[in-house]
Amino acid sequence: MKRVLVVGEINVDLVLQGAHAFPIPGKEVLVDDVVMTLGSASAICAMGLARLGTPVAFLGKVGTDPWGAFCVDAMRAAGIDVSRVTSDPKLKTGVTVSISSPHDRALVSYLGSIRALRAEDVPSTAFAGFDHLHVSSYYLQEGLRPGLRGLFARAHVAGLTTSLDPGFDPSERWEADIVSTLTETDFFLPNEVELISIAREADIPVALRQLENGRTRVVAKLGAEGCMTLEGGQPLAVPAFRAEPVDTTGAGDSFDAGFLHAWLGGRPLLEALRWGAACGGLSTRGLGGTSRQADAAEVERLIASVS
């Protein structure tokens, strides 16, 4: 089975679930439940890959604080190789507060160690024994972002394929440097908002065509509408798998895990899209991004039930 190296951010998620309303200045709102869990798009994707049975290792930075230890322990317990995770006493581990309802969420993040990782912290020797490199949260990883194209280029020289999930841009500038990075990216995995903002085009098929560069396969995650990519220049869509969501935190990252697991396992494109959609839907059954991620048997049963 192909091995995946995930390079990226690690943080704690404090999930406030069942918000009766989203907060506004000067007012207080109530939630139904709270849980502290492993967060960050990169780590949630790594956890999803491990749950599906893909061998995965993580390279990143945390602080020497209880939150950092909590995150590393959670990944280690899931079978992820964390020997490349550095604990730095000069850093504080990042924290995200997720205010979540069954249909939407709002995030407040302290970046901390998230912004500290740089491309030069990933030596080319780190690629040995791996087949694929995945990175998430392009816009949050302020230290990694300027060197990511070069990092992906080095990975390609070492024989790895690459994937990138951009995540949301808190500045909402959606600067065009990411388009240059895509020239060294094999799979680009934005959600609908991210795709529209980066391509500056509201029509999904047109936006997908805007980002075509001869190398990158762009897979758009469309929430309740499923997902879409282009095949032979024409839209190829897969519907969402219906679920009664408890919390949508990390659903897109679980989609990434399902898609990559299937694709790297040699499954056809359409089947890989279904695996992504199934993993995204199943992950919403519990609080946080990792508590109810699917294993391979659950995905196969769900896909078979609607075939």
Description:
This protein is an alpha/beta fold and 307 residues long. The chain has a single domain (4-9, 40-93, 113-295), classed as Ribokinase (UDP-N-acetylmuramoyl-L-alanine:D-glutamate ligase). 30% of the residues lie in helices and 24% in strands. The protein contains nine helices and 14 strands. The protein has helices spanning 41-52, 66-77, 148-157, 177-181, 192-199, 204-210, 251-264, 269-282, 296-306; strands at residues 4-7, 11-17, 33-39, 56-63, 81-88, 94-100, 105-110, 132-136, 161-165, 187-188, 217-218, 220-221, 227-231, 234-238. Strands 5-4-1-8-9-10-11 form a seven-stranded parallel β-sheet, with helices on both faces. It has a four-stranded mixed β-sheet with strand order 3-2-6-7. A three-stranded antiparallel β-sheet has the order 12-13-14. Strand 8, helix 3 and strand 9 form a beta-alpha-beta unit. The longest helix has 14 residues, at 251-264.
Number of helices: 9
Spatial strand order of the main sheet: 5-4-1-8-9-10-11
Instruction: Tell me how many strands there are.
Output: 14
Name the poorly predicted regions.
none
Write out the CATH superfamily name.
Ribokinase
Note the beta-strand portion: 15-25%
Which key terms come to mind for this protein?
30% helix, 24% strand, 307 residues, globular, four-stranded mixed beta sheet, alpha/beta, seven-stranded parallel beta sheet, UDP-N-acetylmuramoyl-L-alanine:D-glutamate ligase
Question: Could you give the topology of this structure?
Answer:
Blueprint: E1 4-7, E2 11-17, E3 33-39, H1 41-52, E4 56-63, H2 66-77, E5 81-88, E6 94-100, E7 105-110, E8 132-136, H3 148-157, E9 161-165, H4 177-181, E10 187-188, H5 192-199, H6 204-210, E11 217-218, E12 220-221, E13 227-231, E14 234-238, H7 251-264, H8 269-282, H9 296-306
Parallel strand pairs: 1-4, 1-8, 2-6, 4-5, 8-9, 9-10, 10-11
Antiparallel strand pairs: 2-3, 6-7, 12-13, 13-14
